[in-house]
Amino acid sequence: MTQALNAVGKQLAGKIVATQFAVLLVASLVTITIFSLQSGLGVLSGGLSAVIPNALFAVIAFRHAGARANKKVVQSFFVGEGVKLILTAVLLVLVLLVTDFNPVWLLTGFVITVIMQWIAPILFLKST
Hints:
By secondary structure, this protein is an all-alpha fold. It is elongated. The chain starts with a helix and ends with a helix.
């Protein structure tokens, strides 16, 4: 039972991250088509700054499961969230400092992926 609950959580987290990445790729391709390659790469970089930390959070948060491991479960979620927030900030700062992408495109990609993080669980609610 514990493994089944953990598997459902891992499956949902995987679907959310995959959906974020797919929407990010589509948004980047649309931006490249309509505007420019530089703009599309900016959207991709901003979006990856949200997708990568979110994937790492999913891996860390679902390491433990079950009532006997409740302290480890809570600790894993807090550690995962902390790692996600720090990594997001580091990636955004690195992209802003290392590249010359327009910050508007970076934030556009970041916002699109964060919004998908909120919408995707609603879309998958019936399928899990």
